[in-house]
Amino acid sequence: DEDKVYVAQRGNITLLDRKSGEKIDQQNLTGACIDQLLCDQGMLFVSLRGEVSAYNINDFLRQWETMLPVFELARTEDNLYVSLEDYKGVVALNPHSGKINWASSEGVRHIICEGDVIYGNQYGLVKKLDNAGNKVWEAQINNAPVAIMKANDGRLYVGTIFGEVYALNGN
Fold first, then answer.
1. Distance (Å, whole) CA 35 – CA 80
2. Is 9 strand, coil or helix?
3. Distance separating alpha carbons of residues 148 and 104, to the nearest angstrom
4. Measured at the alpha carbon of residue 21, what is the angle toward residues 16 and 22, in degrees to the nearest 5?
5. pLDDT tens by residue, 49-62
6. Measured between alpha carbons, how far is 100 from 14 in angstroms, rounded to an integer?
7. What Rg, from alpha-carbon coordinates, does the chain have?
8. Which of 13, 75, 141, 145 sits a CA distance of 20 to 30 A from 118?
9. How far is CA 9 from the centre of its chain?
10. What is the pLDDT of residues 109-145, one digit of tens each?
11. Using alpha carbons only, what angle is made at residue 102 by residues 100 and 104, rounded to the nearest 5 degrees?
């Protein structure tokens, strides 16, 4: 819902009205330290230390959970992507069931998904995959990416650990 904002702080998820900033609802996830929130298509995906859970945004009922050492979450229509801590790989989960659609042990750090799965690894390799996990293209840059952004024109901007910025053709 575009009129609402979800905020994670310590073990709480707070739902705010986007215009007024007023609190609509708050849920406590007991003992949890929330790392990331991702809201998409009626679901709220939450990464906690070593766990990914999916909640229905209307009633905060947990739909599923799975144990994974999460670094970052990203989403396409078909998959919820989890990059694993310590460059251990990427896992594509079914967003409705939490079941693994595919996994790769290739070192991955930052993932973006805006219809595409694009990630970088600690060796400066930037890759684009399709939703089945097949390589579409790859590009080598000089250093490990710390941020990847996709512009409206399809160009990718990749920032590295040493402050360099690369512009890549995202297609």
1. 16
2. strand
3. 20
4. 70
5. 778 889 888 888 88
6. 29
7. 17
8. 13
9. 18
10. 667 766 678 888 888 888 888 888 888 889 999 988 8
11. 120
**Residue of 128, 91, 115, 147 lying closest to 40 (CA atoms):** 115
Ordered DSSP codes for 84-105? EGGG--EEEE-TTT--EEEEE-
Residue type for 90, please? V
Tokens 């659609």 belong to 101
pTM score, two decimals?
A: 0.77
Q: Tokens 């790989």 map to which residue?
A: 89
Exposure on the CB side of residue 79, measured as CA atoms within 13 A: 25
Tokens, residue 81: 């992507």
Q: How many CA atoms lie within 13 A of 1 on its CB side?
A: 13
The DSSP code for 153 is: T
